[in-house]
Amino acid sequence: MRIALCQINPTVGDIAGNLTKHLEFIAAARKAGAELAVFPELSLLGYPPKDLLLKRSFVDDSLAALEELAGQTRGLDVIVGYADRNANPVGRPLHNAVALLRDGQVASRHFKTLLPTYDVFDESRYFEPGRRDERENLVEVTSAEGRHIIGMSICEDLWNDEQLIARRLYHENPIADLMSVGAELLVNASASPFVLGKHAFRLELFAAQARRFGKPIVYVNQVGGNDELVFDGNSVVIDGSGKLIATGKAFGEDLLIAEVGIPKLLKPTEPIGMPADYPPPLSAMPAASAYAGERTDMRADRMLSAPDSYEEADLEAVFKALVLGLRDYVHKTGFKSVVLGLSGGIDSALTAALAAEAFGPEKVVGVAMPSKFSSDHSIGDARDLAKNLGLNFHTIPIKDVHAAFESTLAGVFKGLAPDVTEENLQARSRGVILMAISNKLNHLLLTTGNKSELAVGYCTLYGDMCGGLAVISDVPKTLVWELSRYYNRSKGREMIPQSSIDKVPSAELRPNQTDQDSLPPYEVLDGILFRYVEEEKGPRQIIAEGFDEATVNRMIRLIDRSEYKRRQAAPGLKVTSRAFGFGRRMPIAQRYSP
Ligand SMILES: Nc1ncnc2c1ncn2[C@@H]1O[C@H](COP(=O)(O)OP(=O)(O)OC[C@H]2O[C@@H]([n+]3cccc(C(=O)O)c3)[C@H](O)[C@@H]2O)[C@@H](O)[C@H]1O
Ligand SMILES: Nc1ncnc2c1ncn2[C@@H]1O[C@H](COP(=O)(O)OP(=O)(O)OP(=O)(O)O)[C@@H](O)[C@H]1O
Ligand SMILES: NC(=O)CC[C@H](N)C(=O)O
Question: I want to staple 254 with a disulfide (CB 3.0 to 4.6 A). Which of 159, 249, 311, 546 is the partner?
Answer without folding.
Answer: 249
